[in-house]
Amino acid sequence: METKLKPNYYRIAMFALILIIGILLIVKYTGKIGNTNEQNKTQNTEVKNTQQTKTEGRICSTEEPYQVSEEYQDKEPYGKKTCSQKPVNFTATPLPRTVGENNSIICRLNVTNIDEANADWSFGAYYNQPSGRIQLADQNKSVKAGESETYEWTFKVSFVNPEDNCVMYATRSPTTQKCYYAEPITYKVVNKIRTITKYKNTTKKC
Question: Is the CB of residue 90 less than 8 Å from the CB of residue 110?
Fold first, then answer.
């Protein structure tokens, strides 16, 4: 009896060995597939994270203005001032004359106030021609400091002669009180405060 059972044990053992080897191979192959899938998932996640970081994590550098107060030194004259009435500074520029309708001549004068005070100027004008002088009324205008005004006169003439001319002149020039230090002027150093704008580098998400 013992001699007949040996082949059965042998076949069973061989079958068990083949079965174990098959299971091991299946487990190994399944593990590789799982690892490959996990690696692919990890790589895809990393790519997405990298793209998201490039999109959302972009940093821009800009200059942001800010104001600060600082102390500085300046020179100021000191002593007793002398005050008196002085003419207001201005310029008067004749403009090219033009010919209007019905044998009229138009003369213009541009007056610029180059002083620090507003002022009024009065100007008169006449036109010379062979038959005599044509005189028109004075004009008065207020000119703001740093600005200009144009005075204009229209003369009716019998005929237009290129040699005839306009004459424009001031009939009243304004004055203003101006104060000054006597020469030589003495200066003193004083401390002052001023506000200046500076810039600082800042970073922020674009």
Answer: no
Least Cα distance to 89 among 33, 172, 145 occurs for 145
Look-up: residue for tokens 């040996």?
6
Q: Model's pTM, two decimal places?
A: 0.53
Specify the pairing of strand 104-113 against strand 148-156. antiparallel
Structural domains in the chain (count) = 2
Residue 27, judged by CB atoms within 10 A of its CB (0-12, 13-18, 19+), counts as exposed
CA 148, CA 42: separation in Å to the nearest integer?
A: 78
The reply to whether 157 falls in a domain is yes
Q: Which residues contact 164 (CB under 8 A, 6 or more apart)?
A: 105, 127, 128, 129, 130, 157
φ and ψ at residue 70, rounded to 5 degrees: -135, 155
* CATH number assigned to the domain comprising residue 123: 2.60.40.10
pLDDT by residue (tens digit) across 138-153?
A: 999 999 999 999 999 9
Determine the structural domain holding residue 102 and report its residue range. 87-176
